[in-house]
Amino acid sequence: MEYRILHWYHDLLNLYGDYGNPAALVRGLARRGQPAVIDRLSFHDAPVLSSYDLVFLGSGTERGALAVLEDLRPQREHIRDALAQGVPFLATGNAFELFGRELILPDGSRREGLALFDFSVELTDRRTLCDQICRTALCEQPCVGFLNRASRILGVASPLFTVLHGVGNTEGEKGEGIREGSFYGTHLTGPCLIKNPHLADCFVALMTARREQACPPPEDALSGAPPLPEDDALLREYERRAYSVTLEALTRRFADEK
Amino acid sequence: MKRFFAILLCKLLRRIGAKFGRGSSLPGQAALRLCPDILSRVTLPDTIIAVTGSNGKTSTVEMIAQVLSSCGKSFAYNKEGSNQIEGVTALILSHCSLRGKFKRDILLIESDERYARLTFRAFHPTHFVITNLYRDQLTRNGHPQWVFDAIRPAIPPEAQLILNADDPLVSLFGVGRDNTVFFGMERQSFSTEDCTAVYDDGKYCPLCGAPMLYDWRHFHHIGSYRCSRCDFHRPDPVCRITEAALSEGFLIIDGEDRIGLSFRSLYNAYNILACYTLCRRLGIEGSRIAAEISDYVLRSGRVVTFRLGDTEGMLLTSKHENSVSYDQSLFYIASQKESRAVVILVDAISRKYFTGDTSWLFDINFGLLNSPDTERIYLTGRYAYDLAVRFSYTDIDRSRLTVIPDIPEALDAIRGAGHRRLYAVSCFSDRDKLLSRVETT
Q1: B64 phi/psi in degrees, rounded to 5
Q2: Are B359 and A242 within 8 A, CB to CB?
Q3: Please, which pLDDT band fits residue A155 given cuts at 50, 70 and 90?
Q4: Which residues lie closer than 8 Å to A110 by C-beta, 6 or more apart?
Q5: What whole-number distance in Å separates Cα of residue B190 and Cα of residue B207?
Q6: By C-alpha distance, which of B83, B37, B88 is closest to B60?
Q7: What is the average pLDDT value for chain B, to the nearest integer?
Q8: Which residue spans of chain B are classified as CATH 3.90.190.20?
Q9: Which of A69, A206, B34, B312 falls 20 to 30 Å from B260 in CA-CA distance?
Q10: Which residue, among A19, A25, A238, would best test binding to B if mutated, counting the most B CBs under 10 Å from its CB?
Q11: pLDDT at A219
């Protein structure tokens, strides 16, 4: 059966080209001979989360994310069950902030989060904007990207990234994002899986490993994946070089700043 | 006394700066340092016009200036486009007497949208034009709603607001407010019922968050909308483009004033409409405005024609990190029914600040170029590979792409290919890397 990726709140949490992330996963699966589809769902859709191979949520405005929070609230138990079953969740930008204990708004008022993880978020009236180079235990090469948020994230015990250049969950902190069980959150905004092809590979591997564990594929399985373009090797080369260009540009920039 | 010296210093620095062709904000910066409240110590004219928004500020202000000057009005404006508080201070002080009296009848200001609040703390515009709010420089601006929140405190309660009715986030400034007028474009043959862009910033009501319904759109979230739940809807414009005949090259405003288009694009049409609406507020006749801006060629030169070998080229200056601006250029190219090559150049994302972020490429609808008329697409500049990866997520066949990061090398390849027509899309920050290597015509 084809792989199914959920792009949740695709029409509101899509501020920085985030739709590129599920698209990168479909491409990565095709390269492993696996067909995949993206379900694009939004408010009031109440998806069956456990039926997905991965759930993706992207960045929104502060008001947009709070609206999503209210729609997510009644689905909290389903999310918890899906996570308990090991369904990978990738939440980029402020989507991941919704999964913590509480959000404190700039006017001091408090909103209960989904409370699936033990961290809290202070929304700020200033934005933190910066290019990032960071590492994660998921892959060897460093990751690059841009952080664009109006918040501080407090009390994350297990960050997804260690920041080499840029900022962490709070200013001065080295840890960025969160990794808890099968939940992955980061403030690297936009199509970070396209920018970091090696990171996309890790998430593709997570999905395939999970399926193979549940049901090892028979030796002669027919894949049914769409054929790869003839010049896929060239395309991979473009992806790799796009990453290298940014890594070099950022590395030089950060060296100059010192 | 402090005021006297601040004005004197500003005038002197401006004169010196002019000699060396230096920036126009430095004299203002120096004056503000000497006398931080200088702007509240000068006597300003009765008419102060502010123009802000994501796109089209400079062009709109330039056209307003054209109309004002041809009508013999006495005015001053920030011609060089320095639109933050320092630039505005320099503009004001250099037109003040040493006793602090602004010597013209009208002050016309292009204002940066994010810092308008600082500029208008000391004095208040009487007319406040807001052109649009788009995704623009998100690595600095965050997002359009963030910019909305930044502009709101800059709007004085007594100012007349002149707003784009067709942009929901802009018309929101007028909700529950008197002394507000709107401009808009009626449905045209090219208007669509669905969103044709990669993303839809008009999907949800900016007031209550419920889904919005559109009767039609001109592009992106610009069109005729109403909320499915609350009363928020496109307000009635006082000035409207009743006909936008882009391919014939003219507009009709309010059914009677015909304005020729030197550049046949929708964004040009909106800038003209904003200028027209403002000038009508100042009591200038519609026919007079139309005559003055008909076929007006912008000094800011966003469109440049050139030759490269035997190829006729047209550069459509767009803004990096601004998908609406790119989409408009691509739409213009796609609407030209002729064979052409296209070159897209992304080398330095900004000239004012550094970022390596290329996520904005994914907000641009490059698929618009997918037509048999597009012979070849050249991708060049430092971020050519990012462009190539972005194109791999469109339906455009990769065999029609040529990826050459080195700009001179890419231009040689174009010259050698002998295309008849070439469209170049790039930003102010990058375009000289192309223009310095071709023959402008």
Answers
A1: -60, -45
A2: no
A3: very high
A4: A102, A103, A104
A5: 28
A6: B83
A7: 94
A8: 303-440
A9: B312
A10: A238
A11: 56
Does B251 score more than 60 pLDDT? yes
Q: Of the candidates A16, A150, A239, which has its C-beta nearest B138's C-beta?
A: A16
Give me B241's structure tokens. 């483009």
Q: Map tokens 């970091």 to a residue.
A: A196
The CATH-assigned architecture of domain A3-211 is 3-Layer(aba) Sandwich (3.40)
- For domain B45-293, the CATH architecture is 3-Layer(aba) Sandwich (3.40)
- Provide CATH 3.40.1190.10 ranges for chain B: 45-293
* Token reading at B367: 């698929």
Q: Domains of chain A: which residue ranges?
A: 3-211
Buried-exposed string A220-234: b where 16+ CB fall within 10 A, e elsewhere:
eeeeebeeeeeeeee
Return the pLDDT at A216: 73
CATH 3.90.190.20 fits B303-440, yes or no: yes
User: Which chain A residues contact residue B140 at CB under 8 A?
Assistant: 129
Which residues neighbour B47 within 8 Å (Cβ) at sequence distance 6 or greater?
A: B105, B106, B107, B126, B127, B282
* Residue indicated by tokens 């004012």: B352
- Chain B neighbors of A189, CB-CB under 8 A: 359
3-class state of residue A212 by DSSP: helix
Range A151-189 burial, b when 16+ CB lie within 10 A, else e = bbbeebeebbbebbbbbbbbeeeebbbbbbebbbbbbbb
* Closest to A158 in 3D by CA, of A190, A182, A139, A189: A182
Q: Which tokens go with B203? A: 């999907």
Phi first, then psi: give them for residue B280, nearest 5 degrees: -65, -35
**Cα B19 to Cα B13: distance, rounded to the nearest angstrom:** 10
